[in-house]
Amino acid sequence: MKKLLILGGGTGGTIMANKMRHELERDEWEITVVDREKTHFYQPGFLFIPFGHYKKQDVVKPKNNFIPFGVNLIIQKIDKIDPENNLVVLADGIVLKYDLLVIATGTRVVPEETPGLLGPEWKKSIFDFYTPDGAIALANFFKTWQGGELVLNIADMPIKCPVAPLEFVFFADAFFVERGLRNKVNISYVTPMSGAFTKPRAAKVLGAMLEDKNIKIIPDFYLERVDSEAKKLISYDEREVPYDVLISIPVHKGDEVIEASGLGDDMGFVKADKHTLQSVDFPNVFVLGDAGNFPTSKAGSVVHFQADILTENLLCAIENRPFTASYDGHSNCYIETGFGKGALIDFNYDTEPLPGLFPLPGIGPFGLLQETRMNHYGKLLFRWIYWHILLKGKEMPIDSKMTMAGKKL
């Protein structure tokens, strides 16, 4: 019996387990998923926790709820990937052999990479919201905080869900308005990017939203260290930004096992073809989502669209056919902008976010590069879609390839 091994039981690994179990004969292919955690997190929900919209129980479920019958789930840390010999070694010494390997190990935050970020002020005046514990600690802090300098800083790129930091400051603006404290809170958005987003047209629109909400943007700020005693950020060119409370988006890196196995780039992301999703070094190894060094957003929609492409290309590899699917970099993201409204962007490798209606021309119902209540409802609805449709590998009514239908040049 041949073996398909999937490393990572997050969004990408779970989707692939469901899709490939549907495609492959059970008496011919054994499918195994390996992950170190028993709990599955709905990571987009972390954003909502600091402001009291969600609690931890709203964003967690057991992983085995979503692994299909006929797929082996192993909860264990991965010690080493040995692609030369087609095997993976687990922390308990068990060796798993494979014919095809899918790496979906995601990305992790590493605050220890930035001098001064971790220390006595961590979760006291310095917080993150990219982890459930960080989001919960921040929610507790906001219950009694009476104002001051609130600074959100992106330490470096790439990061998971690049719009989440923007959503946070938009939510913070609305949160403190509703509590009657907005005139006591100065909000700054400090980023290594030259604007609010990586794509020029979206950066202009989102930057205008920041300005309208009286949120100061400090661009081209490359964080060198944090002086937690003096409460200030210091850049490599010695600029300083003072804060009373710091919301940090720490440095992101690939899983430790990628570095240990020599499969990654300098940040631990697996080197793979951006269209076929195949490893550039090993033809029977494929990469999905945040784990890869793809030049696109590390966002949930990317994993969804890539999973469709990868399913087809895995079947091609099994049948010794040329690849027939190609990923175009398609990504779309709802952006919460506060006060019950949201924006939406849709783009790929070659086309930046454009205004228009999505997904149906002339109908929508979602508006691209504009604030609407329907976009906000779309973001809220997505949590149900995630648990009940997306993770289970069911077909979604959005094409994996980006379309220009409904967009305005």
SSE layout and pairing:
Elements: E1 2-7, H1 11-23, E2 29-35, E3 39-41, E4 60-62, E5 71-75, E6 78-82, E7 87-90, E8 95-97, E9 100-103, E10 107-109, E11 126-127, H2 132-142, E12 148-154, H3 164-178, E13 185-190, H4 200-212, E14 215-218, E15 223-227, E16 232-235, E17 240-242, E18 245-249, E19 252-254, H5 256-261, E20 285-287, H6 300-318, E21 331-338, E22 341-347, E23 356-360, E24 364-368, H7 373-390
Parallel strand pairs: 1-2, 1-9, 2-5, 9-20, 11-18, 12-13, 12-18, 13-14
Antiparallel strand pairs: 3-4, 6-7, 7-8, 10-19, 15-16, 16-17, 21-22, 23-24
Helix pairs in contact: 1-6
Would you write up a description of this structure?
The chain is an alpha/beta fold. It has 3 domains: 2-53 and 61-106 and 255-318, 3-Layer(bba) Sandwich (FAD/NAD(P)-binding domain), CATH 3.50.50.60; 111-252, FAD/NAD(P)-binding domain, CATH 3.50.50; 331-390, no CATH class. Helix content is 23%, strand content 27%. The protein is built from 7 helices and 24 strands. It has helices spanning 11-23, 132-142, 164-178, 200-212, 256-261, 300-318, 373-390, and strands at 2-7, 29-35, 39-41, 60-62, 71-75, 78-82, 87-90, 95-97, 100-103, 107-109, 126-127, 148-154, 185-190, 215-218, 223-227, 232-235, 240-242, 245-249, 252-254, 285-287, 331-338, 341-347, 356-360, 364-368. A 5-stranded parallel beta sheet has the order 5-2-1-9-20, with helices on one face. Strands 11-18-12-13-14 form a 5-stranded parallel beta sheet. α1 (11-23) packs parallel to α6 (300-318). The longest helix has 19 residues, at 300-318.
